Amino acid sequence: MAVHIVPWIHVVPEQGALPVDLLLPRTGRTYVARLDGREMRDTDSVFQQFYDELKLPDYFGWNWDALSDCLRDLKWLPACHYVLIVEAADEALSGDAAGRRLLFRTLLRAGQRWSSPQRPEGIDLSRLLVVMSCHAASVSGLQVQLRLCWEETVSP
């Protein structure tokens, strides 16, 4: 069973699944990136995963603001929809609580930007979906962490 905090982020157990129509919209091209939380032991390796899998541009600044900017843009990847699958999401930055919060807030804000009905004139935004796969026993803990990050993100 999928658990989500916001419509653009889903937490699923490793053997879980989401309906295909959530992952593959009916119209337009979809870009799917698979990231591995086991390879995200520190901040640099998080940035490396995103750089490699999303083919981030050379001007990527290797910091959280730069990752946020890139995730909110994605114009170098010609697609109508984007799906980020983070396997072993419960292992990403497991020894760095502050870094994990930054990662989650970055993903939450990017999804919020892509889902916003108020788009700047001339900007054609499409859909970003994040699927976080983890051990079944970690689903509720990851859900709580995401919910807290979301509350921090939307609080005034």
Structure description:
By secondary structure, the protein is of the alpha/beta class. Helices cover 37% and strands 20% of the residues. The chain has helices at residues 20-23, 43-53, 64-71, 97-115, 139-154, and strands at residues 3-6, 9-13, 30-36, 81-87, 127-134. Strands 1-2-5-4-3 form a five-stranded mixed beta sheet, with helices on one face.
Over the alpha carbons, how many angstroms does the gyration radius reach?
15 Å
Number of strands: 5
**What is the N-to-C order of secondary-structure elements (H for helix, E for strand)?**
EEHEHHEHEH
Q: How are the strands ordered across the major sheet?
A: 1-2-5-4-3
* Average of pLDDT: 86
For the biggest sheet, the summary is: 5 strands, mixed
Fraction of residues in helix: 25-40%
**Strand-residue proportion:** 15-25%
| Helix count, DSSP H or I runs of 4 or more residues | 5
The CA-CA distance between the termini, in Å, is 32 Å
Structural class category: alpha/beta
**pLDDT < 50 runs, ≥5 residues:** none
| Shape descriptor | globular
